# Entry
Amino acid sequence: MVKSFCNKIWNFLEAEQQTVDKIRAVVRQNLLAKILANRGFENIEEVNAFINAKLRNTIPDPSLLLDMDKAVERVIMAIQHKQNIMVLGDYDVDGITSTALMVKYLRLIGVNPKYYIPNRFSDGYGVSQNVISKAIENQSELVIAVDAGTNSISEIEEAKKHSIDFVILDHHTQLADTLPQAIAIVNPNRNDQSEIGFSYIKHLCAAGVVLLFLIALQRKLKEIGFFTGKVIPNLLDFADIVALGTLCDVMELRGINRAIVKYVLTKGEYSLGIRSLMPLFNLDNIASPEDLSFFIGPAINAAGRVGDPHVALNLLLEEDAVRSQKIATCLIELNQQRKSIEHQLFADAMNMISSQNLDSKRGICVYGDNWNEGVIGIVAGKLKDKFQKPTFVISITENGTGRGSARSVNGIHLGQFLQKATIAGIITAGGGHALAGGFSIEKDNIGEFQRFIEEQIEGEFINELNIDYTLTAMSDLDAIYEEIAYLEPFGKGVEKPIFCFKRVKISNIRKSKSGGHLLLNFSGEFGNGNIRAILFHLNSKKEFVELIEKNADALLDIAGTINPSLQFGSSIIIEDARVSQN
# Structure
């Protein structure tokens, strides 16, 4: 197998022609039909639901989710009896946006709940004993847990002893056969919850689940006359916050998720907190999902990674422009601090991998004393991307307890793997999604955990680059992008199409003014055509750049995505390259 400059195997996707023909009958364009087939679409109904994804035809009746009506009933009872409500969230973007949604809505209808985001360093994740103590301290009668709670069986049992009810609005995988003794558990990923049409509820983030709950709650409040003489909130005003949680939790952009993100990008209106961050990233507007997930999201996340997550929550709740701008500036500073810590931790992890030849293992497990728990997840993700293996990064505290973060590749379900390790007694607790998870472990068990990884993780993980279509240097990139624009917004499950140009010659190689990017042109083997191309982020692609410069006189195959530009014409963002084969 031929390896590319990025050490990848190129996989030219070939969907069944019968499937492509069926889809083409709907979309009327061959390239678009092929790409949709490459993304797993198989029938006309599914394609129609995707192409015509709008809020009105993708959001199902919320009552079709198990326990939804119970959750609504209990919250209305708390509102009517003026009970003490505490909203409990999580310290990542999805948890913070979910908490903000719930608190903002309750405030709009005249309820002033307390709220709490656990501190990553002192409280740990989710519904911990510290959180239960906080609820008791607040004299809470009802806790609305968002983005947490599905697997907190013992903690919620403890809360019941103090007469504290729980309503859980979550999306995490159910790990145990039983659920906590909450009043209601609304979670599309409960074992007993089925999918609803082409809504893709099982791919909702917690903020999306909260939005469905608010739709159901508002519907019931209308029925009982709660809004008589009052202004009824417009739930679409919260769509940008839901989109932020959706993109930053890397949910599939199909069904409801696609409709929400598409609506937000089309409307182009954002809440004060998001608007306060935009100029700090030189964003005049938010034109793509990446603007939210690569700029706004990390700033929101930074508070929980290196400081107090309530800073980020306060930004989304703030209604005064001056105070909002001050909080946004603070988040930028925290994000810079996060980057510095992350850079050093990544270097330490790479040194351990190199010195112990860990890259030869089936899964990579690295650890260090007092590594910042707020960035170990990012480092795990970067190591996973680099080595294309399940990766586990552990921070060991002074008392010998380790907290770990894990990232996986397709084929290894981390939530299930960590559950198996918990049952085996190797880790003290663990859980998460298919591709991301967290766990706790005693330092003395790390060696056994590394052996467990080697025993349980099977198969070869091939670092592949999936290529959708082969073009030539004479192709009209503007026309091609106009056709694939029907797929926007791009994201997980609807990734940008990757095109290949075979046997091309590179010319006019130069660096951008900032020195951070490589600019070049390429033509066909016989000098025909001329395509402009860009290789971003040179600092992290030293070996790639060296191979391009070394082989600049050879015939190359180049793979990349189309970058549209009305001003300059479309160009190619290079993903990978390789020496052409005869």
Remarks:
- The chain has a mean pLDDT of 93.
- The radius of gyration is 25 Å.
- Residues 250 and 547 are 32 Å apart (CA to CA).
